[in-house]
Amino acid sequence: MQVHTVLGGGGLRLHVREWGPADGPPILFIHGWSQNHLCWVRQCDSALADEFRVVAYDLRGHGMSEAPLEPEHYTDGKLWADDVAAIIDELRLDRPVLVGWSYGGYVICDYVRTYGQDRIAAINFVEGAVKLGEAAFGNLIGPGFLDHFVDATADDLPTSIQAMRSFVRACVVKPVSDDDIESAVCWNVVVPAAIRANLAAREIDCDDVLSALEVPLLVTQGRADSVVLPAMAEHVLATCPVAEASWYEGVGHVPHLEEPERFNRELTALTRRVQT
Known about the structure:
Layout: E1 2-7, E2 13-19, E3 26-30, H1 41-44, H2 48-51, E4 53-57, H3 77-90, E5 97-101, H4 104-115, E6 122-126, E7 131-132, H5 143-152, H6 157-171, H7 178-189, H8 193-199, E8 204-205, H9 207-212, E9 217-222, H10 230-239, E10 243-248, H11 255-258, H12 260-275
Parallel strand pairs: 3-4, 3-5, 5-6, 6-9, 9-10
Antiparallel strand pairs: 1-2, 2-4, 7-8
Helix pairs in contact: 3-4, 5-6, 6-7
GO cellular component, one term: membrane
GO molecular function: hydrolase activity
InterPro entries: AB_hydrolase_1, AB_hydrolase_fold, AB_hydrolase_sf, Epox_hydrolase-like
């Protein structure tokens, strides 16, 4: 495993880690709201890293990346796009597959809107979100997020901690280990409440990106997800001409943790297909 510091949009320092052969086809993992790169442990510590160059980073404001509190560091889509572009450039990733979990879907669309799709091979949305705002709340984004958001953005630490403990459990439907749950609570809690609020302050509509997409898009969606609802995936499939679905029955918001073997197998197939 190698650790990098990459200067992203506006010069913000990003924490980046990579595993696997340096000449392997690259996969860039992009996590979601209030998470960090550790959410991909079942991918980074798997056979994926035997064949592929596996790269994961902490979003701005998350994990070990720089975390200024001011809203302007999080509400400009170009900054998010610049982060992805900087990692691709700095690590010299040759046509990576971009894997975006939840909020990572917005980040991928920010990148494609700003930089185009010529430098990427494919996209995998993992419970990927593509709309944010009042119209999406309750229709595309569900109670697994909405019921916890107010307390998760509270300045009061006990309130925030309790919200994140409850949020983590709302994400998971299939049983996972106590270690995984405890780690998830930890990486959620280290994100400042103000930054969680800043991420949700954006108004986002990615239909322009989806309708023009030409690289393959795999939509990985749990049928039992109460955070990013299955209706979000249905919208992506109806809007994007190249999208294909992989539905996970009885799975919540974390298919890469709830069913990692299947998830890794499907990501392997996608990456091999687009790199030939």
